[in-house]
Write a structure and sequence with these properties.
Layout: E1 2-10, H1 15-25, E2 32-37, E3 43-51, H2 54-66, E4 70-75, E5 81-92, H3 98-107, E6 111-115, E7 119-126, H4 128-139, E8 143-148, E9 152-155
Antiparallel strand pairs: 1-3, 1-4, 2-3, 5-7, 5-8, 5-9, 6-7
Length: about 160
């Protein structure tokens, strides 16, 4: 299972290195990682996806909470949350599949950001399920290159 962990951390040099070192040093993998300053420039919002069972999650949360630079840690996996990921994907494009690629882009509200003789570059933003489905359907056309931001997520407000 993949766990989405959200943390507010001090926006200081070395904080990210300590967090990544702590997790990887325990033998745990980070599937995706995204960090950016919050509205308070002294802090950053960190979102990471960590694969593993409940024991792995428990250990990661405990270790993160021990770091002085970590202000707050939340496991969003069991919460009601919003997640998004941006993907840029270059797909092989021929006269035969061009219309199908354009239809797929339209269906997923993807933007065609570059057209070349033998490829289309598409930009799509969506939740994890949507991005996975989009990429799965693109595979049959041939994916030439891909870049992903990784997941960002926030808890839905109860208000």
């Amino acid at each position: 299972m993949k766990h989405i962990i959200s943390a507010i951390v001090e926006n200081q040099p070395g904080v990210l290195a300590r967090i990544v070192g702590l997790i990887s040093g325990r033998g745990y993998n980070i599937h995706s990682l995204n960090v950016a300053p919050t509205q308070d420039l002294a802090t950053s919002h960190l979102t990471m996806v960590v694969p593993g069972d409940a024991r792995v999650l428990e250990q990661v949360l405990k270790q993160l909470n021990k770091l002085i630079d970590v202000i707050k840690v939340v496991d969003l996996t069991e919460e009601n949350f919003l997640d998004r990921e941006l993907i840029l994907v270059k797909a092989a494009c021929t006269d035969k599949n061009r219309a199908a690629l354009i239809d797929l882009a339209t269906l997923f509200h993807a933007e065609i950001v570059r057209v070349q003789n033998k490829s289309l570059t598409l930009q799509m933003v969506g939740n994890t399920e949507k991005t996975v489905n989009f990429l799965e359907l693109l595979r049959s056309h041939g994916i030439l290159d891909i870049a992903r931001t990784g997941v960002i997520a926030v808890a839905k407000s109860q208000e």
